[in-house]
Design brief:
The chain has a 6-stranded mixed β-sheet with strand order 6-7-8-3-9-10, with helices on both faces. The protein has a 4-stranded antiparallel β-sheet with strand order 2-1-4-5, with helices on one face. It is globular. The longest helix has 16 residues. The two termini are 33 Å apart. The protein has a domain of 171 residues: Rossmann fold (3-Layer(aba) Sandwich). By secondary structure, it is an alpha/beta fold. Strand 1 and strand 2 form a beta hairpin. Bound molecules: adenosine-5'-triphosphate and magnesium ion. Magnesium ion binds next to helix 1.
């Protein structure tokens, strides 16, 4: 897909294998600044692996990836300063309250003391957690913990945010609330790469949708463009057509010897 805006994320020829299993087989992906890209794929397609490589948690075997021009392998500290990650598994400490979790994150992000308090209060308010600020997190509902997860990701005002299945388990209203938070983030210039199994979420939220299958992208276009190209009424139909396990996408899918 061609784009005129500069890239927030640039992935070229990324490869990753675990033991004998090839997960990423030459992945290329460009995410323009200030946009939302949804990375779709079946369970085990490599979405979390991609996010983990981009957030410097896992090394790639080959290829390159940059975030705001910084190479994830050679400049991991610069990348970490610029990104926020809401992982597929929660980062919330269940023994701390919502406020304490946010303060801890503010300290880890080295926020100045004067800014810390204001930022923590602001996020508690924004995510509807103010009333629960002194509740131990283990007593919150799963959806509220997920909101806290996202709030913790945003403490340091990251310029690029990775959201790995951010709305799994949220009720429809909480999901829409979170979409709204993401839209506001992006209107402030933040770039978002999200993974999701909810294709309506991708349709509603993403500027572009990238579909991972067989270790590579098999499509990357706007939701409308994908539906038109596949003569499909919904992204579900597009997804099913593109990720058919009986029709491997890569022409020369390699086995690891
Ligand atoms: N640390 C690891 N060690 C061995 N195999 C791994 C490891 N992490 C991931 N894998 C394997 O790599 C493949 C891709 O996993 P990944 O978590 O990236 O998929 P995913 O697209 O995020 O799936 P899901 O939709 O289930 O979250 C899977 O087959 C998984 O079992
Ligand atoms: Mg995953």
């Amino acid at each position: 897909m061609s784009t005129t805006s500069p890239a927030a994320i640039e992935i070229t020829g990324l490869r990753k294998a675990y033991a004998r299993q090839l997960v990423l087989d030459g992945l290329d992906l460009t995410v323009p600044l200030g946009t939302v890209t949804a990375l779709l794929g079946a369970n085990g397609a490599g979405k979390t692996t991609t996010v983990s490589i981009l957030s410097t948690l896992v090394p790639a075997d080959a290829g390159s990836a940059t975030v705001l021009g910084h190479d994830v392998r050679s400049q991991p500290d610069a990348v970490r300063r610029l990104i926020g990650l809401t992982g597929q598994l929660s980062a919330v400490d269940p023994l701390l309250t919502a406020q304490e979790n946010l303060r801890l994150m503010a300290d880890l992000r080295l926020l100045p003391r004067s800014r810390r308090r204001h930022r923590v209060d602001e996020l508690l308010e924004t995510f509807g957690l103010a009333a629960a600020r002194r509740t131990p997190t283990q007593a919150l509902s799963g959806g509220m913990r997920r909101k806290l997860d996202l709030a913790m990701t945003l403490v340091g005002d990251p310029r690029v945010v990775f959201l790995d299945e951010p709305t799994t388990g949220l009720d429809p209203r909480a999901r829409r609330d979170l979409w709204q938070q993401v839209r506001e983030l992006v209107s402030d210039g933040t770039t978002v790469l999200l993974t999701t199994q909810y294709l309506e979420e991708a349709d509603q939220l993403a500027d572009t949708v990238a579909v991972l299958h067989g270790g590579r992208l098999v499509a990357h276009d706007t939701p409308a463009g994908l539906k038109t190209a596949h003569d499909a009424g919904s992204l579900d139909d597009v997804f099913l057509a593109l990720t058919d396990p009986e029709a491997p996408s890569t022409d020369q899918h390699e086995e690891i010897a």
